[in-house]
Amino acid sequence: METTNQALSLPRIGEKAPSFKAVTTQGEINFPEQYAGSWVILFSHPADFTPVCTSEFMTFASMEDQFAKANCKLVGLSVDGLYSHIAWLRTIKEKIEYKGMKNIEVKFPLIEDITMEVANKYGMMQPGESNTKAVRAVFIIDSKGIIRAIIYYPLSLGRNFDELYRALIAMQTADAFSIATPADWRPGDEVIVPTAGSCGVAKERMEKKQEDVHCYDWFFCTKKLDKEKVLSTILKK
I want to staple 80 with a disulfide (CB 3.0 to 4.6 A). Which of 69, 84, 169, 181 is the partner? Predict the structure, then answer.
């Protein structure tokens, strides 16, 4: 019964991100309250001193400024202890060179979660994968502390960080311009105009032929959205 209750309590898209306080490599944090006003990517990795996780942390750290310009902060987690975290991150900086990345310093906080309290609260422990390691979970949380996207990867699969960044920018663009983004959307591509509520209203919109809107049918309309307009709205100078 306990497992069932835990499963039902897992966070979902559209809900407030569960709160917690934790010790990290950058001091104590109060999550998500202290990140109010910023988007956050909270992500877990299975273990320190493992190769896939090392490649991921180097990639995330090298992209930290890119995410920061999109008003997004990074927070990592594993069930290892603080001293293990510190030793691992020092080793990455001093010894690891990968894909042209070297001397990489991880400056964003990495949560110590020995008790697995946070990992369990966020559903990062998947028994089908491991009872002692958090899977590669990603939670994208908006500036109001609402969970906007949840992505899970198995232990063996490294994440695509370009896709995480694309998803972040797409969601921020959807919020800013009240649109939706189609498959594989990137800034500069056409966006989806929300359906007009009913077939009759939509057909009327099609007949009026709005200057900037192209309707393939009543349920599928797109419009151009200038790349520079998107980036100037979303990214910090």
Answer: 84
Q: Is the pLDDT score of 130 beyond 70?
A: no
- Of 17, 60, 14, the C-alpha closest to 38 is 17
Domain extent at residue 27: 2-159
Give the three-class secondary structure for 186: coil
53 is catalytic: yes
Helices (H), 37-151: 51-62, 64-69, 82-95, 117-121
Tell me the average pLDDT across 229-237. 89
For residue 172, tell me if it sits in a domain. Answer: no
Residue positions counted in the chain: 237
pLDDT number for residue 194: 84
- Which has the closest alpha carbon to 102: 163, 48, 54? 54
Q: Where are the beta strands (DSSP E) in 124-190?
A: 136-141, 147-153
Whether residues 85 and 191 share a domain: the answer is no
Catalytic-labelled residue, pool 53, 72, 215, 221: 53
**Residue tagged 């990455």 (tokens):** 92
User: What is the count of structural domains for the chain?
Assistant: 2
Q: What is the pLDDT of residues 66-98, one digit of tens each?
A: 999 999 999 999 989 999 999 999 999 999 999
Point out the domain boundary residue: 159, 190, 223: 159
**169, part of any domain:** no
